[in-house]
Amino acid sequence: MKKENKQKKMKPGKTNKEDRLNFVKYWTDYIKEHSDKEWSSQQNNLINSLIKYKK
Amino acid sequence: MEYNPKLREIKTSKELSNLDKFALDFINIIKKYVEYTVISGYVSILLGRSRVSEDIDVYIKKIDIQQFKKMCQELLENNFWCINTEKPEEIYEYLKDGLAVRFAKTNSPIPNFEVKFPKDKLDEQVFEDPIKVILTEGEIIISSLERHVAFKKYFLSSNKDIEDAKHIENLFGEFIDYEKIRELKDLIKKRNEKRK
Predict the structure, then answer these.
(1) Which of A4, A50, B96, B110 is exposed most, by the fewest CB atoms within 10 A?
(2) What is the ipTM of this complex?
């Protein structure tokens, strides 16, 4: 039997604008429910793939 | 991430991104010479927003040319350069004329800091109620949450800006003073009308 994915689900928006705002809500809920290390690791996958920085 | 409204401090043990490291390197130099407040998109990104920006906006208080030159010298010694001109006098003139100047690491225009002097009283107020964000490797001074939300919603107002504001409202809504936001909204509206 297929295992149920227990991750929180996001309601799709009816417009692109609404969908994007729904994702903002989904992501801020994720931040509240996870440790700083967990959410920032996700955020850094995005930022560090685009922004390179050497001292 | 914890916000203490009495102390006006946000503490986070987030892993620093390359953008955060760049921000700290620049700020750790300029704070020795001038009072600063980071504003706009990077405030939301620093506090977890899932997007990237190639620049970080910062207001610095007006300082005299000698102090400004010393700051530029230390920036230069640490491989920062001004994209607009190499001469500190010219950078200073641009700022005095109300223009923004950009500083980046040598040979790397991205990311960069967009630096400006406040243009009017409303801009100057960013120095009156800032918040200190305490990171694992340093501190960054940002504009108040109310000011951030008000400017994003009622001055900048693009979809991206509305999302930046929503991010902050979703995370810190219980601490946000919505009366203050209404006051700022009115001031922003009056200023926009004046500028027309």
Answers:
(1) A4
(2) 0.92
Of the candidates B17, B105, B170, the beta carbon closest to that of A28 is on B170
pLDDT for res B14: 98
* Structure token digits, residue B107: 């040979």
CA distance B163 to chain A (A): 6
Q: What is the pLDDT of residues B133-150, one digit of tens each?
A: 999 999 999 999 999 999
In 10 A of CB B49, how many CB atoms?
24
Query: Residue B155 gets which letter from DSSP?
Result: I
Put simply, the answer to whether B167 touches A21 (Cβ < 8 Å) is no
pLDDT digits (tens, 9 = 90+) for B118-136: 999 999 999 999 999 999 9
If you count them, how many residues does chain B have? Answer: 196
Q: Which of A1, A46, A9, A5 is nearest to A26 (CA)?
A: A9
Contacts of A19 (CB under 8 A, 6+ apart): A12, A13
| Residues in B touching A20 (Cβ below 8 Å) | 159, 163
> Does residue B118 have a cis peptide bond before it, meaning omega lies within 30 degrees of 0?
no
Tens of pLDDT, residue by residue over B153-168, are 999 999 999 999 999 9
Q: Say how far apart CA B163 and CA B41 lie, in whole Å.
A: 10
CB contact under 8 A, B50 and A43: yes
